[in-house]
Amino acid sequence: MSSNFYEHLLEQSKIRHLSINEIERVLGYPRNSLNNYKYGSEPSATRLLDISHFFNVAPELLMGETDYPKREEVKEYFKNLPIVQKKELISFGQEWLLTNIQD
Known about the structure:
This protein is mainly α. It is 60% helix and 0% strand.
């Protein structure tokens, strides 16, 4: 059984194209320490805050209590997208705006 926290941790690492080991190295954690959350254990409050600050996301997002990132998180996500995906997202936004705008 995989933990909710670990699933969200993996999601954030994939968005940023980082391995779990790279995240551990940057944060100064022992190797494989983040893999301990794979089987349901929860991080301490201190570690949860460290990781949420590292990813620039709300702790609630990592714990699965919300699906909606904060505005700053959306900006960070957009910044990390490849140029092709940025163009697709902008195109989608323009199409949506044109079809949903009220006179």
